[in-house]
Amino acid sequence: MTETPAALREAHHADVSGGWLRPAVFGAMDGLVTNIALIAGVGGGGVSAHSIVLTGTAGLVAGAISMGLGEYTSVRSANEQVAAEVAKERRELERHPEAEARELSDAWVARGLPRDLADQVAEAVRRNPEEALRVHVREELGVDPDEQPSPWAAAISSFLCFSVGALLPLLSYLLGSTSLALALAVGGVGLFAAGAVVARFTHRPWWAGGLRQLLLGAAAAGATYLVGMLIGVQGGLG
């Protein structure tokens, strides 16, 4: 059977312009690692199960709000910066169209196009002001002004995914268990699963993605557990 070339298929690339995947992944991983490490730290200090739930819940709420606000602010600020640069480029095209066309032609010549062809294409683009603006912005800024990420999508996906990630290591406590080891094991399963899911988007082996996240989370939990245990011992001696 003859395979259809990817260029002839309508959607042969994933949608990477919506701005939701990076904050979703970062939110989920941060929620998992933050609360696993937080629970390991206070658990290592010998506090009660009630105190662990209180600490983990506070970490979930505070972290989710912080992640959502941070993603909204950062994405919106980046979009505003792009908009300012687009406006600057629009003014230059209105004031100095010939110079801008020459700049575009020079860029294409540097990539290997013959000068005559580059000049012809640049002149053809110049006749359509809106298309000229899009082409110049792509060439000079490396962004598409019509496909900027949504700050709301970034904020909401980060908030929700952080909340889900941070909830996992708390689940066993919320269901009545008092075992720190069980809570950390549930969090570890969540880390592995999240890493495996992310690997599907990047076409990496699922087990490699899962193992990487599990090891990173284990390192964070181990460090905070030792700190909690040390502080707990010192507090007891005092």
UniProtKB/TrEMBL annotation:
Alphabetized Pfam families for the sequence: VIT1
Membrane topology classification: Multi-pass membrane protein
Domain of life: Bacteria
Transmembrane segments: 152-174, 180-202, 214-237
Keyword terms of this UniProt record: Membrane, Transmembrane, Transmembrane helix
InterPro entries in the record: Ccc1_fam
Localization per Swiss-Prot or TrEMBL: Endomembrane system
Protein name: VIT1/CCC1 transporter family protein
